[in-house]
Amino acid sequence: MASTPKPEEILKINYKPPRTRWMDTPVEFKPGTFCYGAKPDNLKGLGLPNPREWSPADEDWKLPENWKEILLEGLRERLDRFRSLRVFMDICVRCGACADKCHFFIGSGDPKNMPVLRAELLRSVYRKEFTTAGKILGKIVGARELTEDVVKEWFYYFFQCTECRRCSVFCPYGIDTAELTIIARELLVLLGCHIDWVVASVNNCNRTGNHVGIQPHAFYDTVDMLCDDIEDITGIRIEPTFNRKGAEILFIAPSGDVFGDPGIYTFMGYLMLFHELGLDYTLSTYASEGGNFGLFTSHDMMKKLNAKMYHEAERLGVKWILGGECGHMWRVINQYMDTMNGPADFLEEPVSPITGTKFENAKSTKMVHITEFTADLIRHNKLKLDKSRNDHLKVTFHDSCNPARAMGLFEEPRYIINNVCNNFYEMPENTIREKTFCCGSGSGLNNDEFMEMRMRGGFPRANAVKHVHEKYGVNVLSCVCALDRAAFPPLMHYWVPGVEVSGVHELVGNALVMKGEKEREEDLRGEPLGGMEDDE
Amino acid sequence: MGIGFSLLIAIVLVLVALLGTSIGLNALFAVVIPYLAFSIFLVGFIARIVKWGRSPVPFRIPTTCGQQKSLDWIKHNEIENPSTKMGVVGRMLLEILCFRSLFRNTRMELREGNKLVFIWEKWLWLAGLLFHWSFFIILFRHLRLFMEPVPSLVELVTTLDGFFGFGMHSLFLTDAFILVAVTYLFIRRVVIPHVKYVSLPADYFPLFLIFGIALSGVLMKYVYRVDMIAVKELTLGLVTFNPVVPQGIGAIFYVHLFLVCVLFMYFPFSKLMHMGGVFLSPTRNLPNDSRAKRHVNPWNYPVKFRTYEEYEDEFRKFMKAMGLPVEKDDSKEKS
Fold first, then answer.
1. How far lies A277's CA from each of A200, A352, A355, A511, B42, in Å?
2. What ipTM was predicted for this assembly?
3. Chain B contacts of A339, Cβ < 8 Å?
4. Which of A355, A421, B160, B294 has an alpha carbon 20 to 30 Å from A458's alpha carbon atom?
């Protein structure tokens, strides 16, 4: 694995476009800027084509003999299936408004990371093969031949897009690079050209129920250990149930919250909250993944993984589903789930058993976001909260891309944070809400071999955190996304040391006053609470 | 290459019109080409929209730019994140009439080597807005050539547009605006390195063409006066399918008309189709209501997933060891 250059090195960003025209500038697979290729076993496990040993850095990608035919047929099929693709192929005027909106362009200066050019990588082939003008006029209208080098270029740059949709906010026609990246990756996987980090996770999730590949007994054990930690801190023993039939609610969180630091503290927060409410809920080891790396592979894989949620809810006979804090999970639930795997007519319209609030906005999918659920509890005064237990934290909030731009979840988490913390500071206006900057590791790019690009792509986000860190002393970056919780710790360590990363429900867990708890001296991480530090 | 090539094409087009009329091909330029151009435009435009329309919209993928509709007491942004069709209409109107998204534009700068700043940058928005609105109003004013009597709304718009007249002539504000805006859009394309880097001949050509159209129009009005009565005779003849070719209109008119015809013919095959496409953009024209309302994907086909049964079959032993409930208890079967 390549060592990541120092921040000073990375900041020498050259924004000057190269002398050679982009079609004549070949891609260079430099360690640290690309992800490893999908391993044959993982492709096989999912029945995906062309399983073989290969590396993107290889000269020969061992493509199937009729690769060109496969790609063009795949593209044709998708043009007929997605109006988005057709329209986005035709209407871009190359105004350039999107250019400096992409975190990868800002962090790398590579012009092919401008959303407009990323899309042109695909458009150029579309024009050549599917438009009369392109066939006749070629380069004049921006058309080019599909070659193996183009496939390599697609792989490089469509795995340097995190599908964050920031560019689509600024585009006058709403051209959404995420949509194009999703489709381009779907084309690449037809040739077996995908990244292992994603395909391995999908394969795991398909088999064991979660991306990390944890089997039911280990899942149970891990949650049990988190309950031990909760007991140490609060004196209260929580016994969550698993795969329990007849529970009112099925709770599904991203598996990152169960297995990864600092996500585990958020998971502890969920468990404490449900315990305090006496909620009739169950966890599932089968549907033990909220996230969906299928979204980063193909529409089929997304549907395949997502199907488990309804399947399990039906089997258990629950009334509705509550979902944890995860970004792309909520893109799938909000924009795809019901259409792909619904109708969920075996479930009931979600109603909070504590407040009686009907979640009208989720009456068809029957799935509620936990910040919607908790905000409603707080609004109805159902929780006893001691804000001062978060006084040792100065908190800012990162709007995760998908809940922001594919859902519009802005106020719910902020309302909660403001009710559990005394010190909350917003980052600058151009970097939050719909204009939020990606962590730089989304869409399945949060692997170690991609570290240089992750640090580059995360730079705009980190820079805004640095601003509030220096101005207000912010020391916690909170978020509602498990990928963020995995990606931010190294990013903060790299760009803004001294800032920890937390989920919103970790902060809830800290502030939540539970019946019969012992006097808390530590937060969920075992750090001394504000005012509890030794006086020196 | 792109700029020179596109400019050359534009110049050749002007010369073609001048040459053609000088050798007496007036009927070709006054009647045949306009009919042809308009037909190509109409058929091409509709064909393109139909082609787009034939591909379904399988999923609801609006880009949400404001607070979703969730809990009653949370203020919801119906325009930036519509939950209803009415909201979508509002969002689309803002987008199409005011270029809402472009208005968000900023310019990024890396200062002191390590500070990202986002600078106010509305010039592209302003130039775009001026350009499109001027073009629209100019087109609207031209209705006077195709209607007799001239509708009062056309008269009114013409009067307002020409309010700031000088001397004998009214000067149309939109004429000035469109020339300035097109010039700005061109300069911007050349001067900003990244925009230049992504620009194709197909980006410069329409700018030259439209500049040529506007300039020839202005010259015709303010410098080389053409016989407007003859022009109207021609245009009315065209719309009533009773074409006549009046004599002595002046070459500049034919240049103007020919460039307009080329624009019409070029339109359906080019990026100019963004005019139609913006209405069909699924990230803008759909409500964000897919959790409240089920939407159907017309090509939704089943995808095999791993069922709970298959899962339990693989892990039953471990599940039982942990005391997790199972559906099938094979130990009981055996006993």
1. 37, 11, 11, 15, 64
2. 0.95
3. 58-60, 290, 294-297, 300
4. A421
- Nearest-angstrom CA–CA distance, A163 and A179: 8
List C-alpha distances in Å: B192 to A96, A112, A241, A249, B47: 9, 16, 60, 55, 35
CATH 1.20.950.20 assigned to domain B2-301? The reply is: yes
Q: What is the CA radius of gyration of chain A?
A: 23
Q: Is residue B183 within 8 angstroms of chain A, CB to CB?
A: no
C-alpha closest to that of A420 among A381, A387, A371: A387
C-alpha–C-alpha distance, residues A185 and A78, integer Å? 12
Residue for token pair 């237990």:
A389
The 3-state secondary structure of B130-161 reads: HHHHHHHHHHHHHHHHCCCCCCHHHHHHHHHH
Q: Where are the beta strands (DSSP E) in A464-505?
A: 476-479, 500-503
Q: What is the pLDDT of residue B269?
A: 94
Which chain A residue lies closest to B58 (C-alpha atoms)? A82
- Amino acid found at A84: S
Under 8 Å CB-to-CB from B93, ≥6 apart: which residues?
none
pLDDT along chain A (536 residues), means of 10: 88 94 95 97 97 97 98 98 98 97 97 98 98 92 96 98 98 98 98 98 96 95 97 97 98 96 97 98 97 98 98 98 98 98 97 98 98 98 97 97 98 98 97 98 96 98 98 98 97 98 98 97 91 49
CA angle, B124 then B129 then B130, to 5°: 100
